[in-house]
Amino acid sequence: MAKTEKLSAVKGMNDILPGESERWEWLEAQVRDLMGRFAYRNVRTPIVEHTQLFVRGIGEVTDIVEKEMYSFEDKLNGERLTLRPEGTASLVRATIENNLLYDGGKRMWYIGPMFRHERPQRGRYRQFHQIGAEALGFAGPDVDAELILLAVSLWKRLGLTQWRLEINSLGQPEERKAHREALIAYLEQHTEVMDEEAKRRMYSNPLRVLDTKNPAMQEMVNAAPKLLDYLGEASLAHFDGLKAILDANGVPWTVNPRLVRGLDYYNLSVFEFVTDLLGSQGTICAGGRYDYLIEQVGGKPAPAVGWALGVERVLELVKELGTDIPAPQLDVYAIVPDAAAMPVVLRTLQQLREAGVRAQMHTAGAEGMGSMKSQFKKADASGARHALIFGGDELAQGQVTVKSLRDGEGRQQLQALAEVAQWAATLQSIA
C-alpha cells in the first residue's frame, strides 16, 4: 500500500499551538478588558466578503487589491468573493447593512484573521490577525485622540515602552487634489531617479511614491511638495486639536509628512505606532480618519476614524522585550492506580472544576494506567500544585489523598470526597 502523503499548512498560514496560544489569550484578555473601559463594543464580521467591497473601500489602485487579495468565484452562483484583507471595510459594510448609526455614533472593535498573498517574513504572514478599534459617526479630533490614547493604554498594559507615534494630516479631497497636481508636476521633473514602481504610481497614486523605501529616491522624495502646506484652515485646526489633546496627556508625537497610509479611504488624521525592534516590520499599529468611506461603500455620509494592530507583530515585540506573561497554572493532577476508580475520579474532578479548580486526569495508555511512579512523574511535569491520589484504601473510606507537589516537602493529607468542594474553596491558601 502506497504511503499517504503528509499534508502541511499553506505557506504563510501558521498553526498557533499550546505554549504560544496562551500568549494570544493573554493579549486578547487585555484587549477585551481595555475596550470595555473605553466603551467600545465587539463586532464580528464574516471572513468572506464580496470582492467589490474591497475594490470600492480600499481602492482599485492599491497593492492590496491589485496583487494581494485572495479572490475567487463562487462555483454555485458565480459571485466574486474575497477573503477579507483588512477589517475596516467589513465593519463599515456591517454598519450600513444593519443601520447601526440610526441613533448616533458607535464605538466598536473587532479581532480576527485577515488574508493577503504576500511574501512571508517575520511579522508578516499570508494569514495574519488584526485587532481593530473604530469610532463611527464622530467628526472631532477628540475621538481621533481617544483612539490613540486607547492604543497607548494598551502598550502600558503589555509593558511595551520602545515605540514612537508618528502623525500626519491628509486634509480633505480638494486639498489633496491641489497637492496631487503639484506633486505630479514635481515627480515629472525627477523621473531619472524613480524606479519602475514609482513611475507606475506617479499618475495613479502619487502619494504612495512618497512612501518608497528605495534609498536612491530618498533625497528626491524629501524635497517633494508637502501636503501639510496645502491644508486649509479647518484641516489645520483639526490637526492642531489632535496635537493639543496628545500634549495634554503627555503622549509624545512626531509629524511625519511622508506618512500617507496604504489605503485610499483616509483623510485628515493618520497615525502609526512604530518600533525599531522588529526590523522592516516596525509598524505595530496604524490608522486614521476615513470620513468618506461610509458613503463610498453605499451608506449615508458619516465621519469615522479607527486603527488596527497586527497581533503577530505585537506579540513579537512582547517577546523581544521579555515581558512577563503569567502562564496558566494547573491546580490538581489526579493519580489513578486502578481504572475501576474512574467513575469516582471523574465525579470528583467535575465538582472541582465547577468550583473553579484547574484539574487534569491521568488517563490509561495502551498498557493500562501505568505505575504510580510514572503517574507522579507526569503529575510533576504538568506543573500542578497538588496531586489527588485515588487509592483503593482511601476510596473504601470515602476519602482521597491530597499531596502537595510544590512545597518542597511533599506534605499530604486525607480529604473526604463529600467535602471536596469545600476543600477547593480554600485551595489558594494551601501551600
From TrEMBL:
It comes from the Bacteria. InterPro entries: aa-tRNA-synth_II (IPR006195), aa-tRNA-synth_II/BPL/LPL (IPR045864), Anticodon-bd (IPR004154), Anticodon-bd_dom_sf (IPR036621), His-tRNA-ligase (IPR015807), HisRS-like_core (IPR041715), HisRS/HisZ (IPR004516), HisRS_anticodon (IPR033656). It is found in: Cytoplasm. Pfam families: HGTP_anticodon (PF03129), tRNA-synt_His (PF13393). Coiled coil: none annotated. GO terms for molecular function: ATP binding; histidine-tRNA ligase activity. Belongs to the class-II aminoacyl-tRNA synthetase family. This is Histidine--tRNA ligase. It comes from Comamonas terrigena.
